[in-house]
Amino acid sequence: MEYRIGQGYDVHQIREGLPMWLGGVQIPSTSGFVAHSDGDVAIHALCDALLGALALGDIGHLFPDTSDEWKGIDSKILLTKVMEKVRSLGWQVGNADITIALQAPKLAPHIAAMREALAGILGVGVDRVSVKATTTEHLGFVGRGEGCEVWAVVLICRSL
Ligand code: MG
Description:
Layout lengths: L1 E15 L3 E3 L2 E3 L3 E3 L7 H13 L5 H4 L12 H14 L3 E10 L9 H12 L6 E6 L5 H4 L3 E12 L2
Helix pairs in contact: 1-3
Bound molecules: magnesium ion.
The site of magnesium ion has 5 residues, from strand 1 and helix 1.
């Protein structure tokens, strides 16, 4: 087998009155993420990790925020398109590990749903998709509730 590893990072600003999408799941909240798409910052980091493993640039390069085509788009569609690229080159996902830094609301009740949603699109079992959430103990822009920060790491593999 041949292996590649990729990492992705993304940040979105939080604003009152927007829907909050994270890891393919809508989180009950009075605020959400400012974005050209639906603002699913976890999926964006995951897309960048996959693209990084393949050295294919980043999500902004693939889906420009200047294009109306991607305005308000469900980020699950973006991840599906990235996975089409991954598969077309003969790769499959080994595992993914995602860390979400968000002060509020608490994400623990939604982790299982996120893992399931992401595993479905990645085409792997839920046991290969880790989603972890942390606050930053009220420190920095995350701690002040101004934004959400996500890191993602993926391993992809293909037969030689
Ligand atoms: Mg983004």
